[in-house]
Structures are given as C-alpha cells and as structure tokens.
Hints:
Elements: E1 34-42, E2 54-62, E3 67-78, E4 83-90, E5 93-101, E6 103-107, E7 121-128, E8 136-146
Antiparallel strand pairs: 1-8, 2-7, 3-6, 3-8, 4-5, 4-7
Amino acid sequence: MPVTREFDVTVTGTGRPDYSPRVDVGKPILTENQTEWSDLWTTENDYGGRLPPGTLTVTMYTVPTGYKLHLGGGVVSCEASCIQNIALVATPGILGDFRFDMQGQIIFSPDSAVPLEAGTALQFILYNNDSVARHFSVSLVGTLERVS
C-alpha cells in the first residue's frame, strides 16, 4: 500500500528559478580610446602553402607607439589530425603554450591576460610535429588601447 505524506512548502525569495532566462552578450564594450584588433597568418602567405616539419617563429604584430594591446584569444588550425603545438611569446616571456589537434582555441582569462606595451613584438612559435608539410593558420583577436 503506497504511503502518502503531506507537508507545507514555505515560500522564500521571488519564486523565480536560480538561472536567468536571458542571454548575456559576450561582446566587449569598448571605450573611445579602444578599437577591436585582429590578425591572421596562414601558410598560404609563406612556404608555398605548407609548413615543413619542425618549428617556425613568426613576428605577428608589433604594438605601435602610444598603444597597448590586450589579447583576448584566438584560433589555430592544421589541416590534418596530429598533435601540434604553438607558443605565444612577447617581451615579458611566454604568454601561452597550447597543444591542439587540427584546431585549438587560444583563450586568455582576464586574470591571466598580460597587456603588451608599445614596441612589444608579439611572436608565435609554431611546431609542425607531423612527418610531412602541413597547412596552418593562426588568428588572434584583442583590443588595441590608445594610451597617449
């Protein structure tokens, strides 16, 4: 025979669920002295479209005088499945070391992002760990801030 229990529910709060029924936009809000920044490098521009096995160091961007660059993230890709590696390097040292298979996301949280000062060269070291030449692309985004 089933057991039935009765109990009272005490209402607290607003009666709304613990989640918000809206979507927060992830787009940054820029001030007057900030602009969106992005850069794309591919092997289409160099090496006949294919990077041979080994490493390659590329200076992707140099922060202009009077500006500061805040990196937001990026995407790196390779045409074939093989664990590859990319290291982002600037004057303070290594900004990030990322491994990926075909496509990888480069993510900087606000706590880990280091603004790059004027004159700083942003470089990446790309590792082709495959035994044959491959097509790669590196895309980075961020905010360029005018400081003077």
